[in-house]
Amino acid sequence: MKVKLGQLYGIYEALVTLKDQKLPIKGKYWINKNFKKVAKEYGDAEENRTAVIEKYCKKDLEGKPVRLFMDDTKYKGVEYKAGDPVPEGYMGKFRYDIEPTPEFVKEYNDLMEIDIELDVTPIPIDFLDGAVMESDEQMDALDGILVVEG
Question: To the nearest whole number, what is the mean pLDDT of the chain?
Fold first, then answer.
């Protein structure tokens, strides 16, 4: 199945949603099998996406990327506000301090437009009886993976 690298993120998130649900055994099997394949591609994509972001983000005095808390957070007994710098060793949610310069936007968009081949097996939607998706976007992301037989 041919997709853009940017579409991979939606596919990954939709499969995570399904993977964590109680499903009939056939559905669980095929979701897990496809998830493993998609997760590998996702890891490769995330590595490249991070490299582009770190190339253009603000750096501290030591030349390390500046990471900021996304939400108010308590870490190692210290209260941090959204937007505060993240201390060394923090592994939770954060964002990079980056300005969307034209150069960054072009390189990032070029990356997200790369065509990749996902080796996934179509799953009959009947195998997912009782599954609940979080959004229409997640259903759309699985277009071509979930199929209606008949």
Answer: 93
